[in-house]
C-alpha cells in the first residue's frame, strides 16, 4: 500500500499461521497441500477501510511517524477497533508472502543474501567499535554522536580503500575476459572486508599527502 515490499526471513515458518477468505475444506477439495488455519475477518477490514487509508496517507505524508501512531493505538486498555482491523489486514499480507516464500526459490535466496549482508555489516560495526566492550560510554548526545561519527568515518575509509584497490586491479587488467571474471567475483562477494586492517594500530589523519605517496593511480582508475 505504501510501496514498501514485505520480505523478511520468518523464524519458525512451519509454525506460522496462514489465513484465508474461505474455509479449510474449500482448499482441501482443490487438493492444496498447504492449508490455511484461520479465517480473515473481512467485515472488520471493510468497516474500517477508510480509516486505514487515512492512517496510511498520514504516514506517507510524514505528518507523524508509524511508531507514534501504533504506540497510541496500542495504548488503549481495550484494543482499538482500527488497530484490530490493521492487524487483520496485515494477516493477508503475511499469508500471501509466506505462500510466495515457500514457492519462490529465488526470493528465498535473495532474502538470505540480503540478511547475510546485514549481519556482515553489523560485524563490521562491532569490529570498529572494539573498545569498552563495544559500548558507547558517554551520557551526552553530542559525545555519543561524535563516537558514532568517528566510527562511521573509519568504516567509510576502509570501504573507500577496498573500492579503490579493486578499481585499480580492474584498471591493470588488459583483456576484457579477465575484467569480466574479476567483476563477477566482486558482484558475488562484498567490499565489506576489514580483516586485513590492524584496527589496534596507529591512526594517521594527516591531510597533507605527497603525490608520490599516493597508492592509487586515480587517472587510470577514472579512465577505466
Give a written overview of the molecule.
The chain has 224 residues and is mostly helical. 58% of the residues lie in helices and 2% in strands. It has helices at 24-29, 42-47, 49-60, 66-73, 81-103, 105-128, 141-172, 176-188, 218-223; strands at 19-20, 38-39. The longest helix has 32 residues, at 141-172. It starts with 18 loop residues before the first strand and ends with a helix. The mean pLDDT is 85. One of its GO terms (molecular function) is transposase activity. Pfam families: DDE_Tnp_Tn3 (PF01526).
Please give a quick description of this structure.
The protein is mainly α and 224 residues long.
Secondary structure blueprint with pairings:
Blueprint lengths: L18 E2 L3 H6 L8 E2 L2 H6 L1 H12 L5 H8 L7 H23 L1 H24 L12 H32 L3 H13 L29 H6 L1
Parallel strand pairs: 1-2
Protein name: Transposase
Organism: Legionella gratiana
InterPro entries: Tn3_Tnp_DDE_dom
Considering the chains and any ligands shown, give keywords for the structure.
9 helices, two-stranded parallel sheet, Tn3_Tnp_DDE_dom, extended, Transposase, 2% strand, transposase activity
Give the neighbour order of strands across the main sheet: 1-2
Shape, per Cα inertia axes: extended
Rg over CA atoms, rounded to whole Å, is: 26 Å
In N-to-C order, the SSE pattern is EHEHHHHHHHH
Number of helices, where a helix is a run of at least 4 consecutive DSSP H or I residues: 9
Structural class by SSE content: mainly alpha
Helix content: 55-70%
Contiguous low-pLDDT stretches (5 residues minimum) are none
Mean pLDDT, all residues: 85
Q: What separation lies between the terminal Cα atoms?
A: 42 Å
Strand content: under 5%
- Number of structural units classed as domains: 2
- Largest beta sheet, briefly? 2 strands, parallel
In total, how many beta strands? 2
Protein name: Transposase
Pfam family, one: DDE_Tnp_Tn3
Organism: Legionella gratiana
GO biological process, one term: DNA transposition
Amino acid at each position: 500500500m505504501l510501496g514498501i515490499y514485505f520480505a523478511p526471513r520468518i523464524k519458525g515458518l512451519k509454525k506460522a499461521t496462514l489465513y484465508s477468505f474461505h474455509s479449510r475444506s474449500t482448499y482441501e477439495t482443490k487438493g492444496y497441500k498447504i492449508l490455511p488455519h484461520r479465517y480473515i475477518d473481512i467485515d472488520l477490514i471493510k468497516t474500517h477501510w477508510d480509516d486505514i487509508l487515512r492512517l496510511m496517507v498520514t504516514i506517507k505524508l510524514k505528518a507523524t511517524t508509524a511508531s507514534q501512531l501504533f504506540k497510541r493505538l496500542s495504548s488503549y486498555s481495550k484494543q482499538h477497533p482500527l488497530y484490530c482491523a490493521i492487524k487483520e489486514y496485515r494477516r493477508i499480507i503475511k499469508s500471501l508472502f509466506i505462500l510466495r516464500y515457500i514457492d519462490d526459490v529465488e526470493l528465498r535466496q535473495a532474502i538470505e543474501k540480503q540478511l547475510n549482508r546485514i549481519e556482515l555489516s553489523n560485524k563490521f560495526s562491532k569490529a570498529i567499535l572494539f573498545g569498552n566492550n563495544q559500548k558507547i560510554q558517554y551520557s551526552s548526545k553530542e559525545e555519543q554522536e561524535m563516537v558514532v561519527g568517528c566510527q562511521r568515518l573509519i568504516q567509510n575509509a576502509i570501504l573507500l580503500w577496498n573500492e579503490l584497490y579493486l578499481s585499480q586491479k580492474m584498471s591493470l587488467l588488459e583483456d576484457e575476459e579477465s575484467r569480466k571474471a574479476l567483476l563477477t567475483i566482486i558482484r558475488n562477494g562484498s567490499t565489506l572486508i576489514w580483516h586485513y586492517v590492524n584496527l589496534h594500530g596507529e591512526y594517521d589523519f594527516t591531510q597533507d599527502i605527497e603525490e608520490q605517496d599516493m597508492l592509487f593511480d586515480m587517472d587510470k582508475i577514472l579512465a577505466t
